[in-house]
Write a structure and sequence with these properties.
single chain, Metallo-beta-lactamase, Chain A, binds zinc ion, identical protein binding, Metallo-B-lactamas, nuclease, EC 3.1.26.11
Amino acid sequence: MELFFLGTGSGVPSKERNVSSLVLRLLEERGTTWVFDCGEGTQQQILNTNIRPRRIEVIFITHLHGDHIYGLPGLLSSRSFQGGETPVTVYGPRGLKDYIDISLELSGTHLRYPLYIEEVEEGELFEDEQFIVEAVKLEHGLESYGYILKEKDQLGELQPDKLKALGVKPGPIYQRIKNQPRTVLEDGRVIHRNEVIGPPKKGRKVAILGDTRYLQHLAEVLKDSDVLVHEATFAGDEEKMAYDYFHSTVKQAATLAEKANVGELILNHVSSRYQGDSVEELLDEAQTIFPNTTIAYDFYQHPIKRT
Ligand SMILES: [Zn+2]
Ligand SMILES: [Zn+2]
């Protein structure tokens, strides 16, 4: 599980930072990638990486401001040209379906893969064997959401010592024992999985928020996230400006991370007014409140380890 930031700037592209997009690579977990927002130029950024658009399975759109969606029709269209055949689901606020349908229709674009568009409300979006994904409502100029991904706990590792002690020799039988609660051996003996397996691997919790004012009450739903990705459009002393423009300061993001007891905070959506040394100052401001903070930059990759 790895985050790959493609665009980390706010509003308009700059030479240093493209507009919003980031990818969660789940190659080991499910052989796919999930995309969060798709600002203009996202395809161009992808060309500089080893990300494969045909692996995209889900796209989450936080809100419909242009710096988060102007790259979406192009990416969907190119994926078709590049041989993407597996279905894609796009989640996002009301209006998303019109935006995509009209863009594709008026431009005469026909996708060669099934596309599902789900307009979201606060609450659970889906659950499968691996993940539960929820949307939380934020406060921004347009309807805006954060997405919270909860990975389910997974089976622990088989303990070869215990199996050997039971006289079970290594081989394909090990996989069978792991795959089912109870396995009957050739000699008629029964092996119960829970007796030969280590402790479960704890699932990870990842929260990726869209543009928002500081919302203290989010500490509850973000509680104990392994990673929180939060916008940081303004410096710490720009609280009024942040409020007026429906954004957050670095200090506010760090405060929320601290209150929610998250493992790591990654800041993105940085205004182009901050460059070079002033980005370092933003980082200092955040770290005085929440030390385990990183400010993402374009092409920054961040593995999410199990704790
Ligand atoms: Zn934005
Ligand atoms: Zn916005």
